[in-house]
Amino acid sequence: MIDLAVYNTDGQEVESLKVDEAVFGGSVRYTLLKQAIVMYHANKRVGTAATKSRGMVAGSSRKLFRQKGTGNARVGNIRTGKRVGGGVTFAKSLRDFGKRMPKKQRRLARDSAILAKLLSDNVVVVDGLNFEKPKTKDFIGILNNLKIERSCLVTISSENVNLCKSANNIPKVTVMPVDELNAGDICNYRKMLFTKEAFLAVLSRDQASEN
Questions:
Q1: 193, 152 Cβ separation under 8 angstroms
Q2: Residue 174 has pLDDT above 60, yes or no
Q3: Contacts of residue 91, Cβ cutoff 8 Å, sequence gap at least 6
Q4: What are the tens digits of pLDDT across the range 25-84?
């Protein structure tokens, strides 16, 4: 069992939660986690780089001059990749770098990523993050109170416009609803900040999936 403290926005511990590692799979599946991270980065690749091959550039396909007898080096047509204005020899073309994983594997990889953060003491739970209006300075103050000085993924139970706007201008801080969590985003940040409601939602969802 993992004892996880719950803090208020002033950085004071108000309660604690007992977290069973079995809820997140019992152990970190590093092989599956790597596969999920590779897929995450592959799906971010655009794949729109393209260059013209010799068949795409304008110009005659006639051989410029005869093979022998001129004293010059032998050449092909004007569109060859050896000449200025010719096509690229091994031209790049549009391609899809996307990868896929089964839904169950993606969920297990996400759980392994969260468990890895828990075991390394990089998960912080706060009792609530309520903003009457967007205020970046106030959110920075909360992060300082919680001793979060590195990159952080803030996880909330549902969309919170004021919170998202408060975090927009803070470098290396991203707000994400709990339903959108994935292994790639989790591993991209040093710390994870959960609201208590969001963390309980993760626990209840994973327990329900096991049953």
A1: yes
A2: yes
A3: 50, 51, 52, 53, 56
A4: 888 999 999 999 999 999 999 889 999 999 999 999 899 899 999 999 888 899 998 888
- DSSP strand pairing (2-7 vs 173-177): unpaired
Pull the structure tokens for residue 25. 């799979």
Domain ranges of the chain: 2-42+100-210, 46-96
C-alpha 189/C-alpha 149 separation (Å) is 11
Give the chain as a DSSP string. -EEEEEE-TTS-EEEEEEE-GGGGTSS--HHHHHHHHHHHHHHH---------TTTS-S--S-SS-SSSSSSPP---TTSTTSTT---TT------------HHHHHHHHHHHHHHHHHTT-EEEES----SS--HHHHHHHHHHTT--S-EEEEESS--HHHHHHHTTSTTEEEEEGGG--HHHHHTSSEEEEEHHHHHHHHHHHHHHH-
CATH number among 3.40.1160.10, 3.40.1370.10, 3.10.129.10, 3.20.20.150, domain 2-42+100-210: 3.40.1370.10
Whether the predicted pLDDT of 206 surpasses 80: no
pLDDT at 175: 92
